[in-house]
Design a protein that fits this description.
The protein has about 170 residues and is α+β, with helices and mostly antiparallel strands. It folds into two domains: about 1-70 and about 140-170, Alpha-Beta Plaits; about 75-130. It is built from seven helices and six strands. It has helices at about 20-25, 50-65, 80-85, 90-100, 120-130, 140-155, 160-165; strands spanning about 1-10, 30-35, 40-45, 70, 75, 120. Strands 2-3-1-4 form a four-stranded antiparallel sheet. α3 (about 80-85) packs across α4 (about 90-100). It comes from Amycolatopsis pithecellobii. This is DNA-binding protein.
């Protein structure tokens, strides 16, 4: 099966000698893009699973000399984003998140602050459980999880406790 996704990378590989290497190694299925919104390599990768596709892509991109920092995901969403995606008003979503409307137990923010950012995957599962709406697909959930894992990989590079920290996935 062919999977399409984008890897977040440490530099603009489209204006770099690495772009040609990526194109050659990826046989045209790896397209770097850079700019003020970030640097990514768009990938179309054949593999048995999404995880296998991401692993193969990381190896190929890093073989070209570009460091992978994450997997692009639309998982983080503000209350306004949630309102837009669900067709609700901002106030309705704000009241759900505050526990002042609906059944309660709305997912807490993944990144508290002003604005707070929520996991879109968790929010869609909450709406499905409480309002019978469709859940996000497995692909979105796995892509969001892959992003967290690849970012952890970067953070723990060279750390003597990396293997122990990896066990947190199964804890």
């Amino acid at each position: 099966m062919q999977y399409e996704f984008a890897l977040v990378v440490d530099r603009d590989a489209s204006e770099d000698p690495h772009a040609e290497t990526l194109f050659e190694l990826g046989e045209g299925d790896y397209v770097p893009e850079g700019g003020p919104l970030g640097n990514v390599v768009h990938v179309a990768q054949d593999a048995a699973t999404l995880a296998a596709a991401i692993i193969a892509a990381i190896h190929l991109v890093e073989k070209a000399g570009v460091k992978v920092a994450g997997v692009q995901s639309d998982d983080l969403a503000t209350l306004q984003d949630i309102a837009n995606r669900t067709g609700r008003s901002h106030e309705s979503v704000r009241l759900l998140a505050a526990g002042k409307r609906g059944p309660g137990s709305f997912p807490g923010p993944s990144l508290p602050g002003k604005p707070a950012f929520y996991s879109w995957v968790e929010v869609t599962e909450w709406f499905a459980d409480n309002y019978g709406t469709e859940t996000g697909d497995t692909y979105d959930r796995e892509l969001a999880a892959a992003d967290h894992l690849v970012r952890a990989r970067k953070l723990l590079a060279g750390d003597k406790h990396r293997a122990e920290m990896a066990q947190l996935v199964d804890a």
